[in-house]
Design a protein that fits this description.
The protein is α+β, with helices and mostly antiparallel strands. It has 8 helices and 8 strands. A hairpin with an 8-residue loop joins strand 4 and strand 5. The N and C termini lie far apart (73 Å).
Length: 253
């Protein structure tokens, strides 16, 4: 009997979610349980779960599992970013196609976005971000700025297009991200080249995502500006109240 491929499994799980068999807020069976149920490899199961995540049906968290987030399929990507680990996982569902690499002096507009000095010099890696399966519209365009001392990272990105730049820097130079600061705001695209690369109308609404990657000393050694078509990108955050502390009971007299 032929083993099901990831698309068949993703389709079956999608039907189970949209029909209510797996309720919103519930956890799917573990990867190992799904492997046993479908007679598939772990790689196949992960590919199927990635497809569900890309449709906005589930979120995946380390040490928690795969949680059903919606019973309605959504286009594009809907990451739940709460940690650096989540950001790495989100990146694994996309790949970057490096378009240009070179050292630049920041103009006033970019320097204002990045909150640093105009004219300061950085190595810029410009990439088109696409779905790993390659069958969807481009997800966005990202300009990553790193210290010129990390020039070798450009070739590393070409060899490992699904890996975050900060992860490559840590693996090669040992400099680790302690904090990521992220700002998101809506804007009108005014760049005709960007519109062409992202297959957008010239004056389309986009989301601009600006990130600063800080080390333990609070120094930003990597920054990025990403442009996403507004209908292809969501950011989902889950906010929880801290538990109410129990009031100790007085001993009985």
């Amino acid at each position: 009997m032929q083993r099901p491929d990831y698309a068949d499994i993703a389709r079956h799980l999608t039907e189970a979610i949209t029909s209510g068999h797996f309720a919103v807020g519930s956890l799917l069976p573990t990867e190992l349980e799904l492997c046993a149920h479908y007679g598939a490899s772990r790689h196949t199961i992960r590919a199927a779960l990635t497809e569900l995540q890309a449709q906005g049906l589930v979120s995946r968290r380390k040490n928690i599992g795969t949680r059903v987030e919606s019973a309605e399929i959504r286009s594009g990507f809907r990451p739940t970013l709460a940690s650096v680990d989540d950001l790495v996982q989100f990146s694994s569902h996309q790949i970057r196609r490096v378009e240009t690499v070179g050292e630049v002096a920041l103009d006033e507009a970019v320097a204002r976005d990045l909150r640093c000095a105009a004219g300061s010099r950085w190595l810029r890696l410009s990439s088109l971000r696409v779905d790993a399966e390659g069958d969807r519209l481009p997800v966005g365009w990202t300009d990553v700025y790193v210290e010129p001392a990390y020039a070798e990272v450009a070739e590393m990105v070409r060899q490992e297009p699904g890996t975050l730049v900060c992860a490559l820097i840590e693996s090669r130079w040992g400099r680790r991200v302690a904090e990521i600061r992220q700002d998101i705001h809506a804007a009108l695209n005014t760049d005709p080249v960007m519109a062409e690369r992202l297959q957008l109308a010239p004056d389309a609404v986009v989301l601009k995502v600006i990130r600063h990657y800080l080390d333990a000393d609070g120094i930003a050694y990597e920054m990025s500006v990403s442009i996403h078509p507004a209908d292809r990108y969501w950011v989902s955050l889950r906010l929880q109240q801290p538990p109410v502390p129990e009031v100790p009971q007085s001993p009985e007299p």
